[in-house]
Amino acid sequence: MNQQHQDERTRIRKAMDRLLSGQATASNGSLTVVALAAEADVHRMALMKRHADLKNEFYERVRNETPQTPEPERRLRETVTRLKKTIANKNDEIERLRQQVTRLALAGAVLTQQRDAATEPSTAPNNVVPLRPPTP
């Protein structure tokens, strides 16, 4: 490792300590990679690419040393919860629509049968007497 690389790693570790202790000086103090990069005065992509192990270490320390969940994880959990509710609502709507389609199909069949029965002439021979008189 060259000296610049080692200096970046040192700054990142010191920034981790400041963020986790709540004493941020160069960032908003949130427990995110963006805040860590700003606090360490390192480009965010350098932190994500060259120092991915430190990024993972930071999130591990956030999980272990603080009672709160990291901001990205919290947002993802909220999104998952919202999407699960949306899926449940859509499934309920689909079930209601399926039931309505079934009822409409049955109603259509009944109406078709009634129409056909009303328009068809009686095919019974004249010598057949119905057991019950037809209802009007």
Description:
The structure is a single chain. The protein is mainly alpha-helical and 136 residues long. It contains five helices and no strands. The longest helix is centred in the last third of the chain and has 49 residues, at 71-119. The model has no long low-confidence stretch (mean pLDDT 86).
Strand content: under 5%
Shape: rod-shaped
Distance between the termini: 99 Å
- The helix content, as a percent range, equals over 70%
Work out the number of β strands: 0
Q: Indicate the radius of gyration in whole angstroms.
A: 36 Å
Total tally of structural domains: 2
Main sheet makeup: none
Return residue spans where pLDDT drops below 50 for at least 5 consecutive residues. Answer: none
The total count of helices amounts to: 5
